Amino acid sequence: MSADPADRAVLVVVGAGPRTTGLLERIAANAPELWDGTRQLKIHLVDPHPPGPGRIWRHAQSPLLRMNSMAEDVTLFTDESSTVEGPVRPGPSLAEWAAQFAGSGPRHEPYEEPADPDVLAELRDLASSDFPTRRAQSAYLDWVFRRAIGELPPSVTVDWHRTTANAVTGPPNGPQQVHLADRAQPLTADLVVLALGHLGSAPPAEHEANADFARRHGRFHLPPEFSADADLSGVRAGEPVVLRGLGLAFIDLVALLTEGRGGRFRTESDGTLSYLPSGREPVIHAGSRRGVPYHAKTRYRLRGPRAPLPRYFGADAVDELLAEERPLDLRRDLWPLMAKEIGFGHYHELFHAHPERTAMPWPEFLAAYDRLDWYEPDMASLVAKGVPDPVDRLDFEALDRPLAGRVFASAEEFQAGLRTYIAEDVDRREDEEFSADLGAFLALLSIYGQLPRVVAEGRLSARSIGEDLDGWWQGFFSFLASGPPGFRLRQLLALSRAGIVRFVGADIRVGTDEATGTFTATSPTVPGHVTRATALIEAYLPRSSLQRTESPLLRDLLAAGAIAEEVVSDAEGTHRSGLVDVSPADAHLRDPRLGRPHPRRIALGAPTNSRAIAAFARPRTDAPAFRQNDAVARRLLRTLSRARAAASDG
Q1: Class assignment of domain 8-200+581-649?
Q2: Which of 38, 186, 337, 492 is the most buried (most CB within 10 A)?
């Protein structure tokens, strides 16, 4: 490209999905204060997928795939809860934006109806408590992107390059060259931001043996894959297939293998859901470590006042933790405070919304609750005294491992038992009499917003980061707070009754049998029972792995020694997270060649060790991503302004 004039700054952002959209919104919000409108700023976006939705939320995916959030719980805009330095600029949630197409809400500029008639029809009928399709979210993200572009000052312009970035070169004290797959001439930039989103990776070695077995015996094997990209055509009708994993990827894959193959659900006269097979479905045998699907998402609002969060795990508590001179352990040092915070959210809602199910005044309960540690015997006594019915008490162990210690005499007995468990879970998550569960969920979100600071300070031990933070905690959070819509689990029950889905149990073990050429699945939940299948699907998303990443850009930077994987080492051991190491203070890429963060290269979100703070969020939760976007946008504008001023003066 031709040299830019001295009064023009150039920013290249690799990746144009929701994270970049949020960053652009914050650049637009902060530009009036921090950008001199007499100078030009050119922003280049590099992404082969549409800007706004990006790869994960692109329109080109099955209409069967849905979000696991209600329409009213999705936003990319700051609000009164946002603790950002820049200006708060409220905007519509997905539900509020969709209401304009039904004529029940104000128009939001730029107004344009989605071109897909199915998406438009969905938006016109979308209720606030509905769980939208990913295509509907794609339309919303496209609109947010166009609005953000429209709010930039005239001196800031954006170009989209529908291609892939293969390399970034350039000295730390000079212009950066971003090399594109479809052109010989690179883009020259003052600063580069990598906002690559969720990336695929080559399967880890643990899957190679199963893949080799499948090839030798003519069987089907699918390693971890994003559901929208999974090629399931090799799974035959009636074929027994093991799905290892019962999270959101499992829910998506089941939908694609059943409704996606022509089956349909029907509501019977008694209100139960039944499944009418097309005959093209496989027989799905599903198991996981817990052996049960993720808890259903709640489908109600708080009935009492919102709890004032955080109370026990906020900035002051984090300050006290960081003042400790010893390495911190999440389960020992953080979890008691985190658990108490979640309990506060739960019991605050119970006492305020359902006082008839409590046995003491809230002020009395809270005064005692404040004094006690979570694991003190007196805390259990207080809860038992104040909350008479055990069904209203918070039991993390029972929530986390519902099948622990349970054994069933036969596979059929287990199918019936797990159907009862799932039905009770869905009923509870859709019954506002149990709105205390939503209070706990909101406290979970508050905790999630505080944890990045603890992680950023590097105070957790290597073992605790690996086993607790990236292991137990992330799994527990997802299991409790990131489950599917209730209707998906009701569909799962119908599929189970129809014999299309069968449950294997907890602590699933997958093996191979060379004599029969089949995969085997066993579980201590049903001792002695062996499931045999001719197909194996790893029903979970690929984990971030810098060493195995599919990104040509990250591979090139790694080969050049310009980036590094996060590695935490101490007296307890070493943990390699697979994440790109960035500076917690400002998100700049750590460059091993420099021994410090690269001053002109920044990386946000997945796959960095900021631990993939979600790009969009529930309104009024002071979303961590919005805080990060605002801070980065302000630093970008200040840095680019100084760089251009120096160039002009020179």
Answers
A1: alpha beta
A2: 492
